[in-house]
Amino acid sequence: MKENIIRHKSFDFAVRIVNLYKYLTETKKEYVLSKQVLRSGTSIGANIEESIGGRSDKEFLFKLEISYKEARETIYWLKLLKATDYISSNEFDSIFNEADEVCRILAKIILTLKGNKNSLKVTADF
């Protein structure tokens, strides 16, 4: 069986997000933004898993598109956490790069499935 890179990367990213959530709530005593980043950051991999179990190609693509949107949302929350000094620039850079990579992989998969190279913004623009 061929290795599913996005499946593994999204799971590893979710683990980092859970650890970030624990850090934010336990150390920084931040409970609102941390919950948002936890929800969107773990949703990426959950939707990828759902896509793998999809009943049709259309359902598969739909769930991957949701994963992409959740990845973009996660990037937003990470930027906000950095801008409000809940995470340092170094902490941000590390997790942002991983989020951006997940976004790029998902975008490439989606664009390949759609056969259209111009319908999705691929970069995080930050």
Describe this entry's structure for a reader.
With 126 residues, this protein is mostly helical. Helix content is 75%, strand content 0%. It is built from 4 helices and no strands. It has helices at 5-26, 33-52, 57-83, 89-114. Helix 3 (57-83) runs antiparallel to helix 4 (89-114). The longest helix is centred in the middle third of the chain and has 27 residues, at 57-83. It is elongated. Mean pLDDT is 92; it is low at 122-126.
Write out key terms for the chains shown.
mainly alpha, 23S_rRNA_IVS_sf
Category by helix and strand content: mainly alpha
Strand content bin: under 5%
Compute the separation of the termini in Å. 36 Å
Write the element-wise H/E pattern from the N-terminal end onward. Answer: HHHH
Helix content percent band:
over 70%
Molecular shape: elongated
Unreliable runs: 122-126
By DSSP, the count of extended strands is 0
Rg to the nearest angstrom?
A: 15 Å
The DSSP helix count reads: 4
List the helices and strands and how they pair.
Elements: H1 5-26, H2 33-52, H3 57-83, H4 89-114
Protein name: Four helix bundle protein
InterPro entries: 23S_rRNA-intervening_sequence (IPR012657), 23S_rRNA_IVS_sf (IPR036583)
Pfam families: 23S_rRNA_IVP
Quick take:
By secondary structure, the protein is mainly alpha-helical. It has helices spanning 5-26, 33-52, 57-83, 89-114. It is elongated and about 45 Å long.
